[in-house]
Hints:
The protein is α/β, with parallel strands linked by helices.
Amino acid sequence: xxxxxxxxxxxxxxxxxxxxxxxxxxxxxxxxxxxxxxxxxxxxxxxxxxxxxxxxxxxxxxxxxxxxxxxxxxxxxxxxxxxxxxxxxxxxxxxxxxxxxxxxxxxxxxxxxxxxxxxxxxxxxxxxxxxxxxxxxxxxxxxxxxxxxxxxxxxxxxxxxxxxxxxxxxxxxxxxxxxxxxxxxxxxxxxxxxxxxxxxxxxxxxxxxxxxxxxxxxxxxxxxxxxxxxxxxxxxxxxxxxxxxxxxxxxxxxxxxxxxxxxxxxxxxxxxxxxxxxxxxxxxxxxxxxxxxxxxxxxxxxxxxxxxxxxxxxxxxxxxxxxxxxxxxxxxxxxxxxxxxxxxxxxxxxxxxxxxxxxxxxxxxxxxxxxxxxxxxxxxxxxxxxxxxxxxxxxxxxxxxxxxxxxxxxxxxxxxxxxxxxxxxxxxxxxxxxxxxxxxxxxxxxxxxxxxxxxxxxxxxxxxxxxxxxxxxxxxxxxxx
Length: 481
């Protein structure tokens, strides 16, 4: 068995790790820590809950021990997609730095600029930030990035989902070319691979488990709801919570407005509930999370802002009030339970109109889902939807993407919307069948990012649909909660 001492950590760091309650390193720590100490670039493919924060934090502390920070010139930079994840990284560094004198600063939204200016003026060894707030400080002239020795990009695929990739590209170009880069992502879509090729120098690739897989400590079940209304689904959810005597759970919704409605409904029916979504200010979000960790709130209704990175180890149940639009989001939602070897339970409520999304989940998990109660009928590998094909526009739940970056792949567009979900499906199918090899279509997808929502919609709207008949899913791309 490998120990922290064998990984090359100093005695002071080993003492801090033991004080934090850890006795042996995780697989990603075993592989990453020695390489980071040597100054090599790292490409880490790992899920949340694998110990990856310590895999870069511990060796960074050891390397930054020598040297001194200057005002407004951080020595290292860690980028995180959300305020909550950035705050957790800061807490991890403070925990491991008990025997070191390193200045740590956190730059996130919802906090006064003046307080952050004061920290930057003192000199920062470890700067942890969300991309938007970091760019704000740089544009105000309060921050210089030409002294960064180590760059960490955490949850890169989540950055992609949230539209931060242009910010990441800009930030990387502001940093010194000679630096160490540590890059972590759960999945590897093409846009992420492009960043890696651009900004990493012969990275050591570390993959501790197959990307986008759920821990085997999680029992996953799906429940088919007879009625598709949100009112009926809320009743089903309340009954499940009562029947299973759930003491502690996170309930995920696809939309922020549904989080608010579900929270009010749970309170009205006597549940001890809280809510967490992107429209809340930082003070409210932090207070809600603290109450949930302490057990003062038992049921947390949340949007996907809480799906990744949050380290709340005692979550026993996760419920998906809606089937997530992207299968990757399903993995990261249920990953809030069953952490660190504990047993966890995840249950997803499914309406007839969401059955086509189950096929995506089965593909990414590699096995058929388990139904709690009545299972829907299947024809081959496809679930049969009960929805009638008599509507001119698709419902919001049908405007989904099979890719985590929010773009519509061409095959998805015509296959899924010719499966009895839109009146225009025959016209759409025939258009694609006739013209997907034509020179005009090839020209429409000649950009570096092929098959984007914009390319497909512009081409087919122009050539096959009038302004009034263009399918709704082409006119309005997804907005995630």
